[in-house]
Amino acid sequence: MANKITLTANDGSIVEFYDEIKAQGGVKDVYFSPDKTYVVAFYRKPINANDRERITNIVGIYRQRIFDTPEGNYWKNLFAWPTKMVEWNGKTGIIMPFYDKKFFFSSGPFKGKEKEGKWFASAKLRNKFLPADQKGNWLTNLHMCIKIARAVRRLHAAGLAHSDLSYKNILVDPITGSACIIDDDSLVVPGKFPPEVIGTPDFIAPEVIETKHLALDDKQRKLPSIYTDRHALAVLIYMYLLNRHPLRGGKVNDVNDSGRDEELSMGAKALFIENPTDKSNRVKAQQLSPAELPQGDPAKMPYTICGPYLKKLFDRAFVEGLHDPSKRPSAAEWEDALVKTTDLVQPCQNPNCEAKWFVFDNTTKPKCPFCGQPYHGQLPILNFYYAPSHGKFISENYRLMVYDKQTLYKWHANNLVSPSERTSEADKKPVGDFHFFNNQWILINRNLPDIMDVTEKKPIAIGEYVPLTEGRQILLDKGQGGRLIVVQLVNN
Amino acid sequence: MRHLPVYILIDTSGSMKGEPIESVKVGLSDMIATLRQDPYALETVCISIITFDREVNQILPLTELADLQIPNIITPDSGPTFLGKALEMLCNRIEVEVQKGTPEQKGDWRPLLFVLTDGKPSDIQVYENIIPKVKNKNFASIIACAAGPKAKIEPLKKLTDQVFTLDTMDATSFKKFFVWVSDVIGVGGKSVGTTDSLELPGPPAEVNIVI
């Protein structure tokens, strides 16, 4: 048994660990605490004054601003944030919480390994190696992306850039739709603490790659920032939802040197594989291996299958903003679009469909884009309206697709409420639910005190139901921000 | 999807017989098992093994990591070390097995070459003639490992500046060597520093660097 070491941390508390390296990262050696609630990671090389100050801030003031708040407990699930600093044998160490066990494979060929995001973001790895019970479904992958966008939004709101967002630095669990940002000790404070890495291949923004040959102090040199985090975030979301890289297409930018080709394809000449006008970087599906299909071929699975809200943001990230960082969507915009997209999904009617959920598109003959199963039956779509001034409702271009046993929440009933880390326990409870009952679609009121059937001009008491028929108008909430729904029925 | 071709040349001359070659086999299969747990490697890495003694054999043609099986490696009781001939075969196999960039199709990554020997090339003339051709093949890295007390460093230094020596030829040192090889192979998926483009991980403590 290794010796137990006891140290006093920078905040005066006692830190214990066994003197045995349990894991090694790029720059740190990791030791376990006896109770396995935290780890101590020591930098192998002595750190400089700048790093020391940065880490002091990360375990101190930056941590307090995010975690010593009413929402602090929520964020603890989304970050493995360093909490303290220690010194031992001339080395500096940080204390970090143990990763939750859901972020380790519990069975199968990779048992015990961390769930690095790459497993879930690559078509080949998903199709060929990943056990089916580890993949989650398309909806839980959407939830996972919401967590990532939310965590990045929080960092950016604090003025911090992660600077190395990649599937290596975010552990994910598609089964529960969870994500946790790790390696938060290398955070960058723009203008104060410069970045040490330019990022991880696949996620480095084009302007960073394009200028990496310049000296660090060159004014033209672009280094990681909140804007480059936005690029990495967009790539992550695209990859988790579509299992291919948005810039890896068929265009060859240097015939002779694959390294140079890579640099151009991810940098100066980067071009979205689904760019609507410049089609020169389209994927050549015949060059893909069978394991990369069907996800690898955008002709079979275009990015539009992610629905209208995400399509718009992908366009901003990879068309308008690819070489113009200021046009890239913010993490908050991604979060909002992802949350709204969860309201557009339908369960696939094919019990063997791996995706299980898909964004319902009623502009064409609706079918699951993943397995091809057409949708049969009647389906209500609730179009949301709200009243900026009293009594005059305008469309929000926001809708909710109904499915059997689906639930309605406060954030649907009122546009001033949005689901986030601030959502109270009370607001997390559904306020209504939908059923296909006695051959018609109904909404049962569970907790909407002033819901009203506008068409019939009568209130719907708690526990009562209202049928969802074509054109029916239902006011969900009479207060400010309260939404009106107009029912539309699709038949297939 | 581009592949990362990895060529491993292993000395199977008589002096490797017994514990040394058995340790190499264990090291290799541990390395394959480790790489198979690495999603980056599983997606891109292809491996080929060429053995050399008086015969030169490509015992494993370039194969995707997931699909390969390490064939049995056998060593004759005695005989010369035809490293030159092995490099000739390497050059020929690369022509056939590595996808070159064309205007229509992206090429594979620049290949990695590892050479492991416990002696010196017996076919000196062939060896010296082939070296310029090997250097022309545009390897991302050529790493030579001189194992044991009889390995000669000088000839290897003509092939690459990255020559490492293993003092002993036991299972522990080979294991550490192969752990390091798998780190080198996996480096493409790691964070890139602001000051350097690609930095190889440092060699394990048991390996001595010859500069």
Automatic annotation (TrEMBL), chain B:
Matching SMART domains: VWA (SM00327)
Q: Which PROSITE patterns match?
A: VWFA
Which InterPro entries does this UniProt record tie to the protein?
A: Tellurite-R_TerY, VWF_A, vWFA_dom_sf
One Pfam family from the UniProt entry?
A: VWA
**What are the residue boundaries of the VWFA domain, all occurrences included?**
5-185
Recorded protein name is von Willebrand factor type A domain protein
Native organism is: Bacteroides fragilis str. 3976T8
